Amino acid sequence: MIAASVAADQEYPSGSFDHHLIAEGRTEAPPLPPRPRTRAHLAAWQVKLARDMMLAQMAGGLALADVARRLDMSVSHFIKGFRESEGVSPYHWFMQRRIAQATTLLRDETIPLSKVADECGFADQSHFTKAFTRLLGISPGRWRRNLRSSALGLGA
C-alpha cells in the first residue's frame, strides 16, 4: 500500500482525484448514483400553441413533426412533454377533439354519417365509426338514434 502511495505521489499530484483513488487501492471511481429522471413537461404557452396547431389540422391528418418543429423540440420529446402536461398523448387528445366535433355534427340529423366523417378529418365512414366506437363504446349511428329517442322521451 505504501509503494502504491509513493507511486501515486510521483505520477499524480497530491490531492488529485486519481491520487486519492490509487492511495485507497482502487483503480476506478465508484459508480455514480443514478440521476433522477426529469419529467418532460411543456410550459403553458407550449401546450396552448400545440393545441391550437393541432386544432387547425382537424380536417386533415395530424402532423406532429410540424408542431414539434414549431416548439423547437424533437417529436419524441414533444409527445412525452404533451402526455406529461395533458395526461394523454397528442394523438389521443386529437382524436377526442375530433369525436367531440363529430358529436356536435351528429345532432343535426340531416348530415349523413359520411359527411360527418369527412368534416372531422377521418379517411372514410368506416374509420370514423371505428374511432368513435373505440372512444365512446357506441357506434355513431346508434349514438344518434339514442339522442333522438331521448329527445322524444322514448328511452333507448
Q: What does the model show?
A:
- The protein is an all-alpha fold and 156 residues long.
- 63% of the residues lie in helices and 0% in strands.
- The protein contains 9 helices and no strands.
- It has helices spanning 2-11, 17-23, 44-56, 64-70, 75-86, 90-106, 113-119, 125-136, 140-152.
- The protein is elongated and about 90 Å long.
- The termini are far apart.
Helix content: 55-70%
SSE run? HHHHHHHHH
Strand content: under 5%
Oligomer: single chain
Structural class: mainly alpha
C-alpha-based Rg, rounded: 29 Å
**Stretches where pLDDT falls below 50 for ≥5 residues?**
none
Tell me briefly what this model is.
The chain is mainly alpha-helical and about 160 residues long. The protein has helices spanning about 1-10, 15-25, 45-55, 65-70, 75-85, 90-105, 115-120, 125-135, 140-150.
List descriptors.
elongated, 9 helices, 156 residues, mainly alpha
Describe the SSE topology.
Layout (H helix, E strand, L loop, with lengths): L1 H10 L5 H7 L20 H13 L7 H7 L4 H12 L3 H17 L6 H7 L5 H12 L3 H13 L4
